[in-house]
Amino acid sequence: MTYSCRVDPNDPRLPGDLALAVVRLSRHLRGRRATALVSLTQLSALSTLMREGPMTPGAMAAAERVQPPSMTRVIASLADLGMIQRAPHPTDGRQVIVTLSDYGRQVVEDEQIAREEWLRGRLDTLPEEERDVLARAVAILGSLVSEDGKPANKAPHPESAAVRAADAASTA
């Protein structure tokens, strides 16, 4: 599965080779986990909260593409570990807002550091031209996995802004 910089974009092997490379990279990154304090599912939920800010369990389930009952169990386990906090929703008494605790944030940061250190070391072994190709590929891969086919947006989840605005209004 070695490609030169001039790959035929119509090569029928490309989808299979790309899928295999992504799976192998993912496996290597999982192997670099700093700790095993949480499962990969829990780590993903924590990472979503870190990236998007406070959310309702329903919004977390949607962001993680899991069913709400599954997210409820993940949230309960993370709360038991002290990695998240639950607070009443400022405008809807039937809802709660889930936020990342300092401990949860530290777990996510430690995991990111471990993965990034390994990957940085691997990237440092590549020629500059190949690193340039990978830099462009990041945006392309983000587009492939986004809902609308557009590059992934690092902006906070829209609900996060609404929750913050509601909080500000209720405390004013």
From TrEMBL:
**Chain spans, region Disordered:** 147-172
Give the compositionally biased regions (Low complexity).
161-172
Q: Where is the HTH marR-type domain?
A: 11-143
Q: Which PROSITE patterns is this protein grouped with?
A: HTH_MARR_2
* Pfam families for the chain: MarR (PF01047)
The protein's GO terms of the molecular function aspect are:
DNA-binding transcription factor activity
Q: Which InterPro entries match?
A: HTH-type_Bedaq_tolerance, HTH_MarR-typ, WH-like_DNA-bd_sf, WH_DNA-bd_sf
- Report which superkingdom the organism of origin falls in: Bacteria
Kindly list any coiled-coil regions of this protein.
Answer: none
PANTHER family the UniProt entry points to:
CONSERVED PROTEIN, HTH-TYPE TRANSCRIPTIONAL REGULATOR RV0880
Write the protein's name: HTH-type transcriptional regulator MarR
Ranked from the top, the taxonomy reads: Bacteria, Bacillati, Actinomycetota, Actinomycetes, Mycobacteriales
